[in-house]
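hey
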């Protein structure tokens, strides 16, 4: 078993529903450089949990919180109020896995409409790794292409658009 799967699986059965849910949570949180999980930034975690629940209705907000706490105990997620995946190489691997699995039908407008602004910025931050996934590379081409948000200067003039570009 490769080292990154070992991080995710731990001592559990690799085919178990718990490991499948753990991987799903990790892949989704890996879309973002970091995400808020406590107090005033909990809305960021709730937005991610909603995306995950759409992929797996069994993975509700309470189950999401339970998995996040397990991952914190195992030091895969670290931080106090804002969490991030560690080690960074695992984060990048999980990010690429998400794009390779779910990226084919990705719609940027629908996706970004449901995210808090800070979470969207942390989503953009991860695109420095787009070369790791063909699906992510395709999305970058679409975003920067004629039909993307950068077609006019309006989006570039926003802080978020300028930072992403």
């Amino acid at each position: 078993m490769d080292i990154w799967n070992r991080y995710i699986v731990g001592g559990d059965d690799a085919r178990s529903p718990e490991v499948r849910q753990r991987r799903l949570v990790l892949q989704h949180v890996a879309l973002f450089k970091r995400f808020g999980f406590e107090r005033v930034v909990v809305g960021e975690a709730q937005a991610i949990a909603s995306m995950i629940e759409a992929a797996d209705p069994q993975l509700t907000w309470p189950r999401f919180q339970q998995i996040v706490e397990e991952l914190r105990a195992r030091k895969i997620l670290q931080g106090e109020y804002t969490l991030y995946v560690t080690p960074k190489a695992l984060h990048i691997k999980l990010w690429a896995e998400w794009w390779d699995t779910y990226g084919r039908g990705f719609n940027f407008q629908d996706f970004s409409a449901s995210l808090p602004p800070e979470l969207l910025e942390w989503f953009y931050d991860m695109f420095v790794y787009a070369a790791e996934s063909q699906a992510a590379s395709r999305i970058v081409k679409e975003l920067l292409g004629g039909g993307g948000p950068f077609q006019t200067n309006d989006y570039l003039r926003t802080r978020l658009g300028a930072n992403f570009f």
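The chain has one domain: 3-164. The first strand starts at residue 35 and ends at 36.
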